[in-house]
Amino acid sequence: MVVKMATEIWNVDLTKSVNGIDFGLSRKEVRKRLNREYKEFKKGLFSKSITDDYIDFHVFYDKSDRFIAIEVFSNVSVLVNDRHIFPGGIDQAIAILPDLKKDGEGYISYKNSVGIYAPEETIESILFGKENYYQHIAG
After folding, report:
1. pLDDT for the residue numbered 101
2. Could you tell me the domains of the chain?
3. pLDDT tens track for 83-108
4. Closest to 115 measured CA to CA, from 102, 105, 129, 127
5. Do residues 80 and 96 make contact, with C-beta atoms less than 8 angstroms apart?
6. Most-buried pick from 36, 49, 80, 128 (CB within 10 A)?
7. From CA 65, how far away is CA 40, in angstroms rounded?
8. How many Å apart are CA 66 and CA 21, to the nearest integer?
9. pTM for the complete prediction?
């Protein structure tokens, strides 16, 4: 497995914050704290709100423009409970989050609001959401 070196290290407090940015903050405040260029787009045909694309990650908001999730793709090394979870393989993610369940080409932790895309058992992206994120998007 080849793992690209990350340019940043982020800490995640599951269902509460990512890199010190609390879930529930306004889009304006998240953009201010990230302080980098972004583009807006709709993630899918039925998306209810605009997503911010920061190239290495996407930031998702609810219909009230409150921060609900972030999906990381590259150039960011992510720690959960001071343990490296991304980039890497699915085995190390399961060791950190044993409640991850297989879901198509990925894995989901409903308890911790974490979604992983790992079609070849190497994590290509990892999503961290607010508490009950997967129940929120299903409803």
Report:
1. 96
2. 8-138 (2.60.460)
3. 999 999 999 999 999 999 999 999 99
4. 127
5. yes
6. 128
7. 13
8. 12
9. 0.92
